[in-house]
Input
Amino acid sequence: MQDELTQTSAPVTAPNLLPLYEESARIMTICNACRFCEGHCAVFPAMEQRLTFDRETVDYLANLCHQCGACYQHCQYADPHEFNVNVPRVFAEVRHSSYAHYAWPKGMAWAIRNAGRFTILTTLLATAFFLLGVTLSGDQSSEGVGFYAVISHNTMVTIFSFVGWLILLVWYFSIRSFWLTTALPGIFNIPLPVYRRAMVSILTLKNLDGGHGHGCYQQGEVASQLRRVFHQMTMYGFLFCFVATSLGTIYHYGLSAPAPYDWLTAPKFFGVTGGVSLLVGCAGLWWCRRSTEQAIETEDGGLGNSLIGLLFFTSLTGLALPLLKGTEYLAIILCLHLGFVLALFLNFAWGKFMHSIYRCVALLASEYEKLRQ
Amino acid sequence: MKGDFDVIVIGAGHAGLTAAICAAESGASVCVLEVSPKNVRGGNSKHTRNLRPMHESALHPLEGSYGFDEYMDDLLRVTDGETNQALATLTLEASANSVPWLKDHGVAFQPPLGGTLHLGRTNAFFLGGGKAVMNALFQCADKLNITVVYEALDIQLDVDNGVFKRVDYSHQGNTEHLTAASLVVAAGGFEANLEWLAEAWGDAALNFLVRGTPYNRGDILRQLLAADAVQIGDARQCHAVAIDGRAPQFDGGICSRIDCVPLGIVVNNQAVRFYDEGEDFWPKRYAIWGRLVAAQPDQVAYSIIDSQSAGLFMPTVFPPVEAPSLRELAEKLGLPQESLSTTVDAFNHSIVEADFNHQILDGCHTQGLAIAKTHWARKLDKPPFRAYMLRPGITFTYLGVEVDANARVNFNDSTCTSNIFAAGEIMAGNVLGQGYLAGIGMTIGSVFGRIAGREAARHAR
Output
């Protein structure tokens, strides 16, 4: 009896939880009684709709968390307080664990848990694969132009559309299992305003603005927009490159105008601006990660840096290609580029890239909950 | 550190930093002495969440108006007239500038927090809470080159005939001393000094939990009173609420609250009820329950509800003690079982049935009990039964030093103009002589912080 009455460590509110989820539930129970942080981001209003915090709820809240650090900097219960509340750190760990948990097929969870090693391995193997292919076929004088002279367009299309379809399959099952843990109905039963509001949050990275518009607190007490800017440079850079590739496909098949394109064409414009934006954005994010406040930093086994690295080097080698046209380095850089792209594709399915998908689903769920209230 | 400043401020809470910033902005060189280490700085202000500004029209984030007359009526009602009218008038009028001032100094506001909608018109909530406010003010202090000394221990003031001469303190094992043209005391109350409280409350005070910082021990207040500063209020006055008995001894803050009192019954450790749990809405009554519990044997009480009340009150940090029957609940709580049964039976049999609605003053009440429950009375008969242990949680004290409209401390029989100014809890009793109004403490700190800083700088010139 006395133990129950005099305990000062906060409680577990749901049974049979892993220690990480136990800790998350403990912290959320404290936050739910305090609520001072509800203006910072979408996590706390979502928390306030709940009284208990089971694994699914914690996964949802953690994927809603953008790790802006505001709640940690402003927490009256943070270390050295005995409650030792630290939402960004525990949620970063939960996110990492959730990416592995929702991975499909289940066996690929190891790729998430060992993201750094998986990335290096896949990059090396993919590059070796292309180098070997080029060396063995040796038909550098075939009908292709530019880098299609090194590896034919059809070969690239075959390889990457196979991997592309694989990614879509993985996405379907991974998203589905996460989606079903949220309050969301089927995608066609979600009201349009929910999509619109979630889209605004994504396009502006609203949840890194601190709630006051001055940015996040990843580097300490002073709010900064740097991480938000670098992230969006990366995201928009990536989208521009995606547009460039899509346009290239249209040009190739629709307009019968195969690559290479001039500098003043749409695919080149999107590709080059996107590529440069990616270089700056990724370098910035890498710096942001390095300078993150130690207290909210977690060991992620290279998960975060693997995506930044792949995007950076894909972009760097991609931008180098047109400059190396006609030189002896073209073949090797092309193989390197394609190696990075292939590893990046695998990251889309079993790497940090998935954070964007789960984040989007979580934002949708949060907007949906708000609308239903 | 050795050297002279124009202004020395003691205490780095909201009032102290406001004073320091205002003094520095008036051109003074300023040093702030803070007893706490840097990582727990911010005094009780880090636990606050809003202030109450007068506003004749909408003032973001506040809608509607909260004019002078209504504000003054509220203040007079809660203090029962225990206020210095001139200073109260000054406070309310100057409070209109508090939100703009804080915004100018990097503080962000938000609409009322979840569960506090009743304060949406009167209270401006800090985005991120009081620690966010303090971080913003410390950043301002840094930009203004204000020296802040943390862990300034054993601060000793040399005050002669109402005039501050110098201050001695120890820092990192060394004894330091500083002189300055003027001094601002913003060192809070003495609520963390249970021994001092025990002088007024007896040993009961030793069972109090302190909701805020352990550093508010009243050392500076004591020295000023010893130097013949005019005292205001008495040591028996304190603001105490009933909080979760399992909360930490210090710094439990907001989340140690227990909001389910009006939904069930409250008994002491003899399992006997002692006050009308349904007298009024909880936000209007929670502040009297600290004293009520303090008056019970061993300063402990138990709020008991049944499953009907689940989800009707703010979630708690600690889980309730839960049992399938009252007998087992009594056993778990260590209460006399027969007595609890008798109390609950009598309560259940006295209830006049009506439509229960916890959001209005409903008609559910008891009839024929020595201690009635006048609203929200429902039979306790739906297991599982749940209980929270309550203890008095002391928030702040009222005893302080008397000040004038320039925040200058008044001394008995002084022949000199004092160079000592006061702001915050150490002088809040001038305006709030008793009772409580949500956000009034931060409002007084904001207003007198600005006055004290400005006047201390003016005195230094």
About this structure: The mean pLDDT of chain B is 95.
